[in-house]
Structures are given as structure tokens and as C-alpha cells.
């Protein structure tokens, strides 16, 4: 049976790597539904993900209001797993504090029994900021799963922890959730 993955893309230069994640998961037989934040769309377009997944890309909570379906609820209900890659400091703060003010944060808040995997990607100083670390700790304690960023030369030129984990590692972590060894 085809598993449904909600893939959240947030505003980070690493957003372009998420196209590879979406493409690989789709080719491996997963149904990938992409939700982008407005900031993510500054780095990569919805058309990229639509072309790779063959699914509509969601970003506007109020775009599809129909009497028969509330989209943020229906996406949450059909998901077998949620993957947020890259996860910005902004989305970490929203989720850790129960803020649901866009399509992605609202869908995640509606997921009570769905595993959520978060792949942080940001500048080293942002990642090491005590507030961001507190938000990560809070989310971990609440049962959210993290795929740690790697140390690398970042887009800003700094060397340190904050680069999005390798695409292969992210994909293999998702696959392992459904096919444990």
C-alpha cells in the first residue's frame, strides 16, 4: 500500500535540496504532498515540487475552502508521516509554542498520531541559539523526531553545524520508519 508523506518546506537556502528528497521519495513509491511556507517560495517554486510529485502543492490555508473538505484537516488525516525539510528556526518556534498561522504549522498541529520528522537547516549561530535549542528540546520531549543537521561550510560562508542532513540520510530515515530492519 502506498504511504502518504506530507513534506513541509520552509524558508532556508537548503530548500532546493528538498526537491531531491521529494523526487526520490516519489520514485520509491511514496505519495508526497508538499506544503510550502511563503518564505520557502522565495527559494524554490511550487511548480518544481508539483512537477516532481505529480501532486498539487499547498501554501495558502484559505485557497481551497469547500463545504465538503477542510484541507488542513484532510491532509493531516491522510498522512502516514510528516517530514519538514528544511526546518527553519521560525517553524521550530511556531511548533514548539503551538502557533498555527500558516498551512504547514496548521497541518502539523492537526497531526496527533502521525510521526513528524524535522530536519533543521540554518546558520550555526541560529542553530546554537539557546531559544532554538530550547524549542528543539521541547519538540523532542513531545515526541517529534529530529534528523540532525551536519557540519559544513554554510551558504553564508561560516563553517559549523547547521547544514541540512544529506538527502540519502533523510530518505533512508523515512524508509526505515515503514520498513524497519
TrEMBL record:
<feature type="domain" description="Flavoprotein">
    <location>
        <begin position="3"/>
        <end position="175"/>
    </location>
</feature>
<dbReference type="GO" id="GO:0004632">
    <property type="term" value="F:phosphopantothenate--cysteine ligase activity"/>
</dbReference>
<dbReference type="GO" id="GO:0004633">
    <property type="term" value="F:phosphopantothenoylcysteine decarboxylase activity"/>
</dbReference>
<protein>
    <submittedName>
        <fullName>Coenzyme A biosynthesis bifunctional protein CoaBC</fullName>
    </submittedName>
</protein>
<dbReference type="GO" id="GO:0071513">
    <property type="term" value="C:phosphopantothenoylcysteine decarboxylase complex"/>
</dbReference>
<dbReference type="GO" id="GO:0015941">
    <property type="term" value="P:pantothenate catabolic process"/>
</dbReference>
<dbReference type="InterPro" id="IPR003382">
    <property type="entry name" value="Flavoprotein"/>
</dbReference>
<dbReference type="InterPro" id="IPR036551">
    <property type="entry name" value="Flavin_trans-like"/>
</dbReference>
<dbReference type="Pfam" id="PF02441">
    <property type="entry name" value="Flavoprotein"/>
</dbReference>
<dbReference type="GO" id="GO:0010181">
    <property type="term" value="F:FMN binding"/>
</dbReference>
<dbReference type="InterPro" id="IPR005252">
    <property type="entry name" value="CoaBC"/>
</dbReference>
<dbReference type="GO" id="GO:0015937">
    <property type="term" value="P:coenzyme A biosynthetic process"/>
</dbReference>
